[in-house]
Amino acid sequence: MDNVGKEQSRMDLLALQGRMKQDPGGYEEELLLQFRHFHACIAVFSVQSPFQTTAGTSAISSYDPTAAKELADMAMFLAHVTPSYPQHLSQFPKQLLGLLKSQGHSLPAFLRRHLTQALILLRNRQMIELIEILPVLMELQLTGDRVVRKLAFSHVVHDICRLNRKHRNEATNRGLQNALFPILQDDNENKAKHVLALICELHRRKVWMDERVANAICAACFHKSSRIMIAALRFLHGYDEKDNDEEDSDESSEEEEESKHSVSAAVSREAVYKAFHKGTASSRKKKQAKLERARRSLKKQQRLQSHGVDRGSFAPLQHLHDPQGFAEKLFARLNTCNERFEVKLMLMMVVSRAVGMHRLILLNFYPYVQRYIQPHQRDVTQLLATAVQACHDMVPPDAVEPMLRQLVNQFVHDRARPEVIAVGLNVVREICLRIPLIMTRELLQDLAMYKKSHEKAVASAARSIIAVYRQLCPSLLEKRDRGRNANILAQPKAFGQIVVASDVPGAELLLQQNENDIDILDDDVSYCGSDSEANSESSENASDKVDELDNLDDASTKSASEVQQEQSEDDEDIVESDSGQDWMDSEEDEKEEECSKEQTGMTEAMLNCAEPLNSDYSCGKKRKVEEAFEVKHEEPSTNQSLRQLKKLATNISSRFSDGLNGKAKDGILSNEDFEHIRQLQAKQAAEAALAKQGIGKVNQKRKEPEMKLPTSDTLGNRRVNPTYLEAKIHKRREKEERLASARAGREDRLAYGARTAIKKKKTGGLSNRQKEKRKGLPLAAKRAKIAARSREQKRSKSRSNKQFRGKKAWKQ
User: What is the DSSP string of 406-426?
Assistant: First the structure.
């Protein structure tokens, strides 16, 4: 058959395929005919090309390209029409799968590729399950055909991702994992390599993130093949680094909006208005730069918090079933490893990561790392980061002290280069953050002397060590290095000591806000008392009563029993006053009018005190608190005595305070309370960041800035970046280099000169002033202008002959 006939038959198959999809019932006979033709093509191809080859032979099969092309076209045709005829072609997927399973390696590349595409098409149409074709697709990746290998790998990855797109399909995932995990421990290196690549890709895409997958990847570190071990180690070590790169590069707009909202929650409108509308251009620019720096610091803090909560939980090393056994077995393999230095370094990094993350005890690891702590060692910063990562507060300080001595003796001395000293001091700081008890007084004072170094990197590294021990243990420092308001009694935790939290972190912020609300209410009561003083006619008696009202804070702290006792005493006083002697009646008659007036003034004052609780001011927090705790106010009347009115104000204040502190006393917080705590913490962090940049309330006193030390859990979960330990030394450049850089920065600038001269040389047209002079005015405007000019000339002539002493003297 010539090429024209082949193309015609192919077009006929495509046309028939379209008609079958439109009308499946009308083309059943043609379908059966093409299905029999498919079996005939398989028979013809089996006769012309031997499928089976003996093991160890690499002879090229003598196949007919025409038969292979016809078989591939028929397989693709039947794969397309199978969904339309599920009953007639129910056995076709299994036949195609068996053909690839038995003769997949010996088929021609063109035919193998088309048969694989047909099988993937059937799987996409849900005509066969993934668990059935998974072993065949993994076997096809072992062939030398690069296209088939890439096609099979990408299909398995995307198919599993599609299965878990809406929800996690645990049953299907468990079956696929049971089929793949035994291959991962197989002695066949090629099979294990492709399975490991598949599992790592699914874990990287966050599709398979359970403990089984994490432990399977970690178990690959003990494979007999060094290539499999290196691939697993590289994935475990580079997982955190890749997440950090993605986090730095993919800065979403949501984080920016959250940071802007947190800044706006702490910055007053006045500060923002001043930054953009008040002052000169340079002062506004400085204020805006302060706001931008505060926003960036808050954004960085939020990114670190989200990294600690979200990103770190996906690390495979965090889901180990037996972290201690994993670290010990991997360290044993490190001791007997004969690989190159890069592989040993990777093994040390993974072991130290596991030790620091799970706070394991592996005492033999520190003397092993100590052997490599030399300034001339290759990749010394990565080795030092490994040593730092393996330190935590559960390690005995005696086990790490020899390594610290080796570090100080080799890196921190007078004959070392500045960059070496800076690296050594930075590593000492990181180790002391994790094990504060390892530092001695003599060593700390010796390291603190480097703060006077002329090299900026060395001096800043030494000051960072001083800043750490200002908070951990100031008594180890000299008096001049402790800073202001140093707590001499502060000591780091003893070895093995665990601090157990007895309250909810951040609950004190709610209590502080409640106290502020109570102070606001007391201020309203005292303000009402001052109004009553103005309304009363008797100044002396009214001032005494207002003083009593000003002391409502003391009265609000009394217990309920004391209040009841005072009420009983008041009742007795009232009875005694009613049954008094006759000689007191005359005096009471004289003061009756005054008392009635004073009671009327106090009644108005108490009513004024009760009104703010129901006014617009109480629409916020106080109304919510009153509705939650059912604070009912007793309306005072003019018939009540002065002492009863004071007690009414005391009850209102005490009920309000009890309602606010009720939740704090019983220790039960709702979801709204926790959300409020998070908002208060975000606001507090924003205010601290703004205060650090010099933006805050004017009345607040500036405190000495303190370095916020991370907790042990944060240090364990965070990977130590070797680049942070390096010193950034800027060497002094020669004069020619400095002149060249200065000239390069002036390329886009205009030439120096006066602005008027520059404007005269411009060729862009006339200025506004020049246009105004040349503007054609109406006749009336011209006459008015000429008249004004003549009047001014007459005035100037008359002034020239007289001594001008001001406008008023001249008018006279």
Answer: HHHHHHSSTTS-HHHHHHHHH
